[in-house]
Amino acid sequence: MDSLNLIESFSEFKEFKSIDRVTMMNVLEDVFRSMLRKKYGTDDHIDIIINIDKGDLEIWRNREIVPDGEVEDANTEIAYSEAIKIEPDFEVGEEVSEELKFMDFGRRNILSLRQNLISRILELEKDHIYAKYKERIGEIITGEVYQVWKKEVLVLDDEGNELILPKSEQIPSDYFKKGETVRAVVAKVDMRNSSPVIILSRTAPEFLERLFELEVPEVFDGLITIKKIVREPGERAKVAVESYDDRIDPVGACVGMKGARIHGIVRELRNENIDVINYTSNPILFIQRALSPAKISSVEILEEEARANVYLKPDQVSLAIGRGGHNIKLAGKLTGYEIDVYREGAEDVEDVDLEEFADEIDGWILDELKAIGCDTAKSVLELNVQDLVSRTDLEEETVKEVVRILRAEFE
Predict the structure, then answer these.
(1) Which residues form the S1 motif domain (predicted)?
(2) Fewer CB near the terminus (10 Å): N or C of the chain?
(3) What is the CA radius of gyration of the chain?
């Protein structure tokens, strides 16, 4: 029974391929010596021989031969009369080596020993996983969805290690089923209750950067540098790129022929709109590029306040702001300036056509307002909220949001 347990233990340990042979042997010897010290008080007189591959382990106790009647410690000394029973040629002062059988240690000690071995090896395995993924922070991992919960998804890597993809690190339109393959970047590695916890992310800017490296060889080779990435996951992203080789068009290389390269990234990010922008150290030009597709008339930089006043023609304002304000918000993050948009010649503009708000207000809402004769912003603002609710099929909260957006244009 004891030999079988030991061999089974070795078979289990061999499955931990991440632990090298020397470390494994040191752990095994250390655990066995700990047991021997408890039993004999010392292990200085004991040799341990281990063969991991065969599951063999031999323990030899060495005792000095002393004259009969002078044995003070039976663990380290043996009487001459006992020694010659083992080998008739022995003499006083020589050393006798005897193999200790596992049966001598008792069933309880053997089971305790096996548990200690498993515990030590599992600790080593956990430390290895922690160190391995700590070095891989910022790298893309491909894994298989093993379990889907409300607040997180459990992913297994190719070695069966458990990785966590929290809901907060998923793109809003992500939907996973068990068995699917998922790609994400390693965002964080922690130790909780002595176990490594690997957190993945699909919303981090690093995930988009790694995808560019996979899809665009020039980025991977360092010919094109990604200066900065800002994202509203699932909605929009802006990527500033630069090439130190005048022969390479960084934006064209990233987009690819007919958008072939960027389309692969967009699909992975659930149709997130990606604007690739040529980086420049000229802040005015950089702001103009960051606010694309809007055409900017002029930019005024207030360096001490880190603000930029941007002036546009009336029909370009909604393009600069973007649907839900994503465009101007991301442009601000990319350039590092707080951007304020001003309508060029605003003092001469008495009203604004509702169509100019198409990027901020859904089309069907605009149609509802037009159906009651409101074609301009001021014609809507002339009515109070209750009138608008009663004359249209719009909810009160929707009407309040529309009014807020329209008023902002005249402030």
Answers:
(1) 138-203
(2) C
(3) 36
Amino acid at 208: L
In sequence order, which ranges of 291-384 are alpha helices (DSSP H)? 317-321, 326-335, 363-371, 377-381
In terms of Cβ atoms closer than 10 Å to its own Cβ (0-12, 13-18, 19+), residue 164 is: middle
Residue labelled with tokens 């207030």: 302
Say if strands 296-302 and 307-312 run parallel, antiparallel, or are unpaired: antiparallel
Q: Whole-angstrom Cα distance, residue 154 to residue 166?
A: 9
Alpha carbons 209 and 235: distance in angstroms, whole number: 16
Outline where DSSP puts E strands in 294-394.
296-302, 307-312, 338-343
Token pair for 323: 């649907």
What long-range pairs does 46-54 form, CB within 8 A, spacing at least 24? 46/100, 47/97, 50/25, 52/10, 52/13, 52/14, 52/21, 52/24, 52/25, 52/28
pLDDT digits (tens, 9 = 90+) for 22-44: 777 777 778 778 777 777 777 77
Tell me: the pLDDT tens digits for 242-283? 998 889 999 999 999 989 999 999 999 999 999 999 999 999
For residue 266, give both structure tokens: 């967009």
CA distance 38 to 317: 81
Structure tokens, 128:
């290895």
Nearest-angstrom CA–CA distance, 115 and 210 = 43
Do the strands 195-201 and 338-343 form a parallel or antiparallel pair, or are they unpaired?
A: unpaired
